[in-house]
Structures are given as C-alpha cells and as structure tokens.
Amino acid sequence: MTSRTVLLVDDSRVARMMTRSVVEKSCPDWTILEAATGEEALEYVAASVPDFILMDVNMPGMGGLETARLLSERFPAIALSLLTANIQDSVREEAGRLGIGYISKPLKDEELIRFLTGGNGAS
Amino acid sequence: MTELIGALERDAVEEILNIAIGQAAASLSRMVRDHVALSVPFVEFLSPAVAAERLDGTTGGADSVAVRQHFSSSFSGDILLIFPERRSLDLVRSMLGDSVPMDSLTELEQEALLEVGNVILNACLGSLANQLGLTIQSSLPIYLRGRGARILDTKHPDTELVMFLQVDFSLATKGVQGYLAFVMDIVSARHFAEAVSAYVARVIGG
To answer: Nearest 5°: phi and psi at A33?
Structure first.
C-alpha cells in the first residue's frame, strides 16, 4: 500500500490512541496526525492536506459535523469519514448529505481498513 | 410511574430501553473484547434521595465513578453510566488491553472511562432516538466521582424524578458491574411518556 497520511480528529486522547493502533497495524508506513478539535483540524489541513480524515462528531467548539462540512467543501479530494459514538439516524443521514463516510464507535478494525483502502466510510 | 404512563406505555418504555441498552452492551462488548451479560430488571421512577440510597446500596456505601451526559429533545435530562470505583480500572484494562503499559493505565483511567461512557451513553441515546423517531442533542460527557447523591446531583430534588435502571454489565471474566440512570424532571418525564405513547400508537397502528 502506498504511504498516505491520515488525520485523526477526536477530543478524546484514548479514542485517538485506539484508532491510531488500528491504523498502525494495518498501514504501518502511513503517517498519522492527530487533532483534538475541529478548529485544530482546519489548521492542520490548511498547512498540509491529508489523504484521509476520521472525524469525531461530539467535540468542544465547532463540532465534527460543521468541521466536516467545511473540509468537504474546501478539500473535496480528501476521503473523510465520521467516526462517532452518535448512532442516530439523523447523523448518519447528515453524513450522506455531506457525501462523507460514517463509521460508528466502537471501531471495528475491518470497517476502518475498508475505508482506508477504498476511500469510503461504511454507509 | 403509573401516574405518568399506563401499563402499555410502561411495557413500551421497558422494551425501548431494553433495545437501547442492548445496543450499548454490544458497544461495550466490542470495546472490552469480552462477552457482556446484561440484565434490565425494570424501570423505576424514584425521588433523587431514594435513587441515591439505592445507588449507595449497590456499592456498599463506597464511592462510585460516573460519566454523565446532558441530553435534550422533546424531553431533556441527564443520562449517567455509573459503576463502583474499585472496579473501574479493570474496565479500563479490559478496554485498552496490552496496548498501554500498566503504569500508564492509571493516568489514562479518567479519559478512558469518559470514552467508555461516551460510546455507551450515545449508543443508548441513539437507539432511543431512532426508535422514537426523534433527534436527541447531547452535551460532552463529564466525569464524576463520589457517593450516590453527588453522582446524581439533581438540581431540583423536589420536582425531579430519577428514571432509574440498574443494569448489570457483567463481563465474563472481570465481574464488572455498571448501572445506567436517567434523570429527568416531571415535565420532561411527561414529554418522554408522550413520545412513548406516540411510538406505541405508531407501532400498533402500523
């Protein structure tokens, strides 16, 4: 697999650790970046555009849905998926409207690998 | 409880919450990579004081740790995941497995419990929202530690009810027990009952 860059956006350090561990196992040569807020993610992406972004929804400040909306408008080439504990149909539907992926927590390794290898989140 | 909703709605509440908690248990099972045995005895509406006593009874009067999240929809309140403090580190160890050294576990305990709470409470709220056909907004989870009254921390003890659920999150090898509680005031409890009534009418009508 070609080396790529993944940005993990989650206010929980533990959640980022768990996601990082799956990415490291399945894509050992990839670069993994972390942001704890939507605002921080926007700054990272403005400086250097990653190939993939995994975005929590419930975060302090801007929140994941608004951040994802801005990122998908400005950087449509990034493969972006929500990675959230919020399993409500309304959130899943919003991801569909934004044209981004949706992966629910707790993370299933195979779902994340499918996203990273195919560029699409689980529907 | 009977003053708020009828027998049919009570059955519906228990079924809706059973499904929601089942979803939460499935999430917990995936996080700790272990079978989670669950029981939902029944839903009780209690005064905050009685609920706090009930909670202290389950922990032998020791401190509990809890993750609390405020939610709002046509009804609003707080949802809490509570478990005895002495077993909380076992839960964290089950969740993080060997990926984190032992000496880092204690440092990460609070954050790990917040993430457990985030996943479980949102699984429960999400399932509730999906079944009732509502959107539920929720705040960021917060971590609490203390006796029952501090954990429940009701703002208006004279008017609030605690919709109390005791759920045994028994992990096959760890024996960790957890409890789930909803805290709603009377007005919200009535709105919740109305949402459940609408659900019952829809299910029976459909």
So the answer is: -110, 155
